[in-house]
Amino acid sequence: MSLSSLVAEISNNFKFNEEHLRKSLKTILTYAEQDNELSDSFNSFPEQVQDLVFNLHMILSDTVKMKEYLDDPEMHMDLMYRIAKGYQTSPDLRLTWLENMANKHKEQGHHAEAGMCLVHSAALVSEYLHMLEDRRYMPNGAVTYSKLTPNALDESAVSDDIVSPDEEGICNGKNFTENGLIEFLEHAAEEFTQAGMYEAVNEVYKPVIKIVEANRDFKKLAEIHKKLFKAFEKIESLQGKRVFGTYFRVGFYGRRFDDLDGEEFVYKEPMLTKLPEIACRLESFYGNKYGQDNLIIIKDSKQVE
């Protein structure tokens, strides 16, 4: 059971104590560090336990923080990303969190980001299907999607800690199938269409077409080419007329921001958003959170001392 699910979905009959779980993780770490027999052996088991405990601790902290930042969509999404990152070596759990991120982005109208989460899901599934069985018409792992986004290579199964899809209970869900892969890619194409990223629609359908051709599903092929025809028409008719998001650098300075103190982020806002608009939104949000008297908005790009 994933640690994040344990923390987030506690039943009413069971009172979860975060501190006890932290102490349990610390105890495991202490035993691993004091086990001289394992430390002297050729394997790196104590180091592996240490890495595991630190990773679980980060997942625990981020999951608890998610409850605190339910009203802060940017921070909430950043925490979801960090939890998904923590499950990098657990394909089933990582895929679940990538889907959660895609759904949350879709709810917020962030179609490009939702599409990218789905591309990462497809890259992850492709990587493990490629490990299970090398079929010529199937994508050659996560590298297939590197043209869409170089970040897709994050799903490459190259770490020593990566679990094998041959292990019992690993990658057995409906998503780790040809149909599951096609579904992720088709949903990604829908999101990119909503975002006006028609070139990405073309790239997403390339691996789908190979699979559908191999299965000789000509009805499906006809549907795909109709969608591509519409995407290409949009590219031609909207030459020089498409406007995408507006980006702002936002920094947080001051002890009241805790972990955010001194951190800077890139905020993506809707197209043609002006600086006063995002400044007003952030001032209203953090003013309500910390008090207007404790907040100063700096609207230039000078160094903050």
Brief write-up:
The protein is mainly alpha-helical and 305 residues long. The protein is built from eleven helices and two strands.
Secondary-structure blueprint:
Blueprint: H1 3-8, H2 18-34, H3 36-40, H4 45-68, H5 73-86, H6 91-107, H7 111-132, H8 178-194, H9 198-214, H10 218-237, E1 246-251, E2 264-269, H11 275-290
Antiparallel strand pairs: 1-2
What does this structure look like?
- The protein is 57% helix and 4% strand.
- It contains 11 helices and 2 strands.
- Strands 1-2 form a two-stranded antiparallel ribbon.
Label this structure with key terms:
single chain, 305 residues, mainly alpha, two-stranded antiparallel sheet, 2 strands
Helix/strand-derived category reads mainly alpha
Mean pLDDT over the full residue set: 85
- Poorly predicted tracts of residues: 10-15
In one word, what is the shape?
Answer: flat
Strand order of the largest sheet: 1-2
Strand content: under 5%
